[in-house]
Amino acid sequence: MKKYFLYIAFILLSSNAFASYILIPMDAETQKNHLKAYGITYWSLTQDIKVKWLLNYRGGSFLLPDSKAIQRECQIRGVSFEVLSDARTEEILETISSPSKNMEAVVLEKAPKIAVYTPNGKLPWDDAVTMVLTYAEIPYETVYDTEVLEDGLLLFDWLHLHHEDFTGQYGKFYRNYKNAAWYIEEKKEAEALAKSMGYDKVSEAKRDVALKIRDYVVGGGFMFAMCSATDSFDIALSAAGVDICEPMFDGDPSEANYQSKLDYQKTMAFTDFILERSPLVYEFSSIDMTSKRLIPKETDYFSLMDFSAKWDPIPTMLCQNHTALVKGFMGQTTSFSRELIKPTVLVMGENRSNQEAKYIHGIKGKGFFTFYGGHDPEDYTHKVGDPKTELDLHPTSPGYRLILNNVLFPAARKKKQKT
């Protein structure tokens, strides 16, 4: 009988040492594929599995309940993982909860429904966000002007703005590409779409689309934008009701003294900017730092800010990475002038030596927005017609991780922000 009880005690003690959690580490040394790790986390949420995002613990690791299905998905997708006992898991969580540690465990509860605002016919590799979503195997749907104006955004938790020009100036490509077949065709298609929706001008249609997107954010939506979709969006909001387009864009002259008629109170992130009047200049306004940069490619990096995980979990989530120094990359809108960013907007990534912000975040009404300068984090000077980036060659990209941080953000059970 004594041996029997000893045997039972041994079994009970041993069972506590058995694995019951999976840790997906996100540090530089251990994780083989950071980008697909986000896909595993998203997939787990779709299976009604809650995930703990361990902020500032080994690069922002993910903690999941152990299951053969999750292990199998990690193995299939090439994602590194560790199997933990209950005791080891409790030890990690206790360390994270310590007031002396700048760490926090945030619960991810539900997979956000994702929309990408993009024209018909655009391929996934035309945009960094659609490219990384596809690579990470995170599903998304596409919407464009018609769906936005018909309140289709209400079906989604998270919206990405493709590299769009919301001012109606067709990306300011006029000087270099006005005779190119693709430019002529895209202009023709944009005019036909605007007309089908009852607008005389593309700029008027884009203005109303921008206002609808703003209302989506104010109502509680999460918006993420890159490159020209950042500053052109704010410009469109500031110029609502003001004609800032020259004849080659909308058929008639711009409004006299339109610069003085801009309303910066209507914008989300920027203020006091000066518009670029010339249609021959590939630039929207003084917001963008592309032409003001004196940084060689070899030393072009931006640094991520360090926030309190316990008091400011939102910017901490959005900055999770395995390095605090991220390679810079260009775009039509490469980065933002620090002096033109509203004081209510949080700078999360910057190149201080050049007085530019690369990665910013703000609150609008009940919702949130993030603007990220540049076109492709792994293609320094992406140009029209350049081949797509092969993310299989960049599975640990810090620049792309910032995009995926934003994708998971709406899934989090958030605490009130202090900053």
Explain what the structure shows.
It is a single chain. It contains 13 helices and 15 strands. The protein is an alpha+beta fold. The protein folds into two domains: 107 residues, UreE, C-terminal domain (Alpha-Beta Plaits, 2-Layer Sandwich); 298 residues, Rossmann fold (3-Layer(aba) Sandwich). Strands 6, 7, 8, 9, 10, 11, 12, 13, 14 and 15 form a ten-stranded mixed beta sheet that branches. Strands 4-1-3-2-5 form a five-stranded antiparallel beta sheet, sandwiched between helices. A hairpin with a 4-residue loop joins strand 13 and strand 14. The longest helix is centred in the middle third of the chain and has 17 residues. It starts with a helix and ends in an 11-residue tail after the last helix.
Rg to the nearest angstrom? 24 Å
Beta-strand percent range = 15-25%
Q: Per the principal axes of the C-alpha atoms, what is the gross shape?
A: globular
Give me the CATH superfamily of the largest domain.
Answer: Class I glutamine amidotransferase (GATase) domain
At CATH level 2, the architecture of the largest domain is 3-Layer(aba) Sandwich
Largest sheet: 10 strands, mixed
CATH class of the largest domain: Alpha Beta
Oligomer: single chain
Report, as a whole number of angstroms, the end-to-end distance. 63 Å
Mean pLDDT: 92
The domain count comes to: 2
- Write down the CATH topology of the largest domain: Rossmann fold
Number of helices: 13
Helix and strand composition category:
alpha+beta
- Uncertain regions spanning at least 5 consecutive residues: 4-17
Q: Could you estimate the helical fraction of the residues in percent?
A: 25-40%
Number of strands: 15
| SSE string, helices as H and strands as E | HEHEEHEHEEHEHEHHHEHHEHEEEEEH
Signal peptide: 1-19
Protein name: Asparagine synthetase B
Keywords: Signal
